Here is the input.
Amino acid sequence: MKRFGAIATLFFVLIALYAPFLRSHLPLVVVYDGSIYFPLISSLLSPLEFPSLLERFWNYGSIFLPFALLIWVLTRRVWCLFATALIVFIAMILGSLDTNLKAALLYERDILYDSQVSKEISDQSLIRTPRRRYLEALQESQKGTWQQNELLAHDLKLQTEAKKISFIAWPPFGIISWFEDLGGSSEQNEQVSFGLLTRRNRQDLPSALLFGLRVSLFVGAATFCLAFVFAVPLGLLSGYLGGWFDLFLCRFVEVWESLPQFLTLLLIITFFETKTIFLVVGLLALFGWTMLFRYIRAEVLRERKLSYIECLELYGLPRIRILFRHLLPNVIYPVLALAPFEIMAAITRESALSFLGLGDERICSLGILMDEGRVSFPQESVLLWPPAILLTLLLIAIAFWGEGIRRSWSVRKEN
Here is the structure.
């Protein structure tokens, strides 16, 4: 169970990490005017292509991680990792795309996407792809006017630049990004396959599912890390010092846990009148640290009665050193066994908030996608089931991983 859960969770993490390499509007490799370019890699650090800090965090990781692993295996030096990060960053900045090349790539992509949609839709009047909208604007403009002449000149320039491309390799699962307006409609969704489905806002659904995994995993990991930062020092101090400090903290935790967490989250988000993903993570961590606090406190109460703690106190070691140098390493492992379950709880809460319309609508979390499917249900039930099924599979994988860790720790503790 542990191995299956770990492999499945790692599979979802890798999909989220390399989502742009699986489905994106820029190719992986292109030969343009006799030179080799890597447009997708060059765009990953661009604030214009990926304006969200969350997306750039994942993009940096997708570029840095392979180099970091290779350097670490070869050198085993920490400073080499920082040098690698600096080299990768400089290479990405220097490898920015030429404006003409990017325009030519988007021109080629629009034509290719339009041909894919045209093959699956019988009624051509329903097609509202970027290429079709451009041609409609060209037809609606009066013949011989400056507007039509400008559009024709621009199109001719793009055709000329596109002819300089001798080789192009697109991502394997599609040529669309999640934030592009594809002009889709409910009538179009009834005729196309899953790979060409669009959301209610006319953006691509399969791409949104890939990037939605990024949001869910980030929320789970970031919430656990923040809750861990809250819980560790308080749990150590409460269990080790005892007395009035321990009594005060325990009573405070009891009162805090008695609050209706979900309703409190709704009130706070409504009060701040903002729905950023970082606010949601902070609020989830604020209500999720108590369980970790209880476990750390319990482990410290058990450890402080052992003889090695008494010896350290008799030697006159400072309490801070005893806490963080000797107690913390011995109590941290059973607490880390709770990490998968805390991550799973954070993902579930964020999805529930987004499903109720209180999520960050600027991103495509799985909860946001389910909310869109709920609004369009049952006419477009196809928009609801994919994110719901994907979220369920992700939670099952994390649950199996956590249960395997818990059983392993129980067996180790008994032995």
